[in-house]
């Protein structure tokens, strides 16, 4: 069994370490199956989830409001395929990570609100009793009070009569034990908070910081000996 990390993933982590400021920001693209319309928005990479027995198969973790249109868009595609785009200015490198998305919302919602992760990585976590709800709670409490307040707003994308309507919404949502804690707002925000995980299956890696420029496509393999096939492309 392959025990090394994926080369593209090592390159991404190294590049992000060199990037200052908004280094964790990436673009997440989805498609609406019903009208084939593409949609893209910025996201924050919250972490890299790696099972010890499968170090070359990382899951990329981000979060969302379960009520956002992107959730319906991801669910509309049978494969739940998405693409994450990273541009690292510090190194002039671009990563386009295509993979299958899984969504873990509050367990209090209907069963069909989320998307259960499938495949060997998720199977490995299940075999050890991994609880995604524990991770969801940890991520929710790790974000700032202002960010938590965003999940107390009305449904994202719904019409408003006036910009001033936003003045009625909570500005911050404190955690239990913090000053200003409001149980109702905390539970409402936590109920709308969901994990989004991307299980990569193809990565397009472009190195524009070297001359001549380089471009490599990484394609995930089923073989334990060779997890990622590398194909050199014209940049």
Automatic annotation (TrEMBL):
Domain of life: Eukaryota
Domain Pyridoxamine 5'-phosphate oxidase Alr4036 family FMN-binding: 6-104
UniProt protein name: Pyridoxamine 5'-phosphate oxidase-domain-containing protein
InterPro entries assigned: Pyridox_Oxase_Alr4036_FMN-bd, Split_barrel_FMN-bd
One annotated GO molecular function: FMN binding
PANTHER family hit by this protein: AGL049CP, PYRIDOXAMINE 5'-PHOSPHATE OXIDASE ALR4036 FAMILY FMN-BINDING DOMAIN-CONTAINING PROTEIN
